[in-house]
Amino acid sequence: MRAGRVLEIAGGGRAAERLRAIVAAVPGAGNLAASGIGLDPHCRPQGTFEEVRKRRGQVHLAIGDNTVFGGQVRSPVHLDLVLRDPGVTPGGAPLVGRGRSVFEERP
């Protein structure tokens, strides 16, 4: 199946440039395959990838192939990414801001 809308990758630096090049060159690489917002306050910020992506206030995105999740986009790549200090505001309502979820108790 044809991949959906290609993600827009903002920002500078070598990592952003490399990611833009992969999305431009590899069929289906710009497909948003999975996403999640970490809620676990006990995960270490420098732990394993599996731990870091579940840490409260982090956002996990996967792009590329999603067939392992039951999706219909095949791609030769599947890249998992963790966004640190993200801002997530679906419909204008803040859900995560500066790496803190709105579920956290304020000091």
Structure description:
This protein is α+β, with helices and mostly antiparallel strands and 107 residues long. The protein has one domain. 16% of the residues lie in helices and 21% in strands. It has helices at 13-25, 49-52; strands at 32-37, 59-64, 78-83, 96-97, 100-101. The strands form two sheets. It has a three-stranded antiparallel sheet with strand order 1-2-3, with no helix packed on it. It is globular and about 35 Å long. The relative contact order is 0.19.
Please describe the structure with a list of short key phrases separated by commas or semicolons.
107 residues; alpha+beta; 3-stranded antiparallel β-sheet; 5 strands
Please report the number of helical segments: 2
* Structural category: alpha+beta
Rounded to an integer in angstroms, the radius of gyration calculated over CA atoms is 15 Å
Tell the overall outline.
globular
Please give the largest β-sheet. Answer: 3 strands, antiparallel
First-to-last CA distance: 48 Å
Give the number of domains: 1
Q: Please state roughly what percent of the residues sit in beta strands, choosing from under 5%, 5-15%, 15-25%, 25-35%, 35-45% or over 45%.
A: 15-25%
Mean pLDDT: 83
**Major sheet: arrangement of strands:** 1-2-3
The succession of helices and strands, N to C, reads HEHEEEE
The number of E-state strands comes to 5
Q: Percent of residues in helical segments?
A: 10-25%
**Low-confidence spans:** none
